Amino acid sequence: MSLSIRNQIPGTVTSVTSGEVMATVKVRLDGGQQITAAITREAVRELGIEEGSAVRTLIKSTEVALATGAVEGLSIRNQLPGTVTEVATGGAMACVKVAVAGGELTAAITRDAVEELGLAAGSEVTALIKSTEIALAAS
User: Fold this and answer.
1) What is the band of 139 on the pLDDT scale with cuts at 50, 70, 90?
2) So what's the pLDDT on residue 90?
3) Bridge partners of 81?
4) In angstroms, rounded to a whole number, what is the distance separating the alpha carbons of residues 4 and 52?
5) Chain CA centroid to CA 89, Å
6) How many whole angstroms from its chain centre is CA 48?
7) What is the dihedral of CA 82, 83, 88, 91, to 10 degrees?
8) What confidence tens digit (pLDDT) does each residue in 96-129 have?
């Protein structure tokens, strides 16, 4: 199956914590970073997700925010350091590609944000992704 979601990074489930309706699933990405996804308990069951399962993390580019400095005091669990490899700007929006350990992320952000943050190839950034915005696919 082909998907329009640009960000697809493989990893291995390290833990599953279930609640009444939702579960948090921690995944060690192939580059070594840890990422947390909040998905339904039903999805965990239907996909057979358990510790040791191979999965793909799926993240829409519009759900990736970028920061140029240290990020503290924030509820966003997923903070991946990386380096900007490419910036393509349009009239209102921009596509920013970020190399992270073991893969690449694409962030769709406003052109104004690119300019205000001074983003260019070589810029060090932190990609921020809410756990509720990460989908998982069983491998």
Assistant:
1) confident
2) 92
3) 126
4) 27
5) 21
6) 22
7) 70
8) 999 999 889 999 999 999 999 999 999 999 999 9
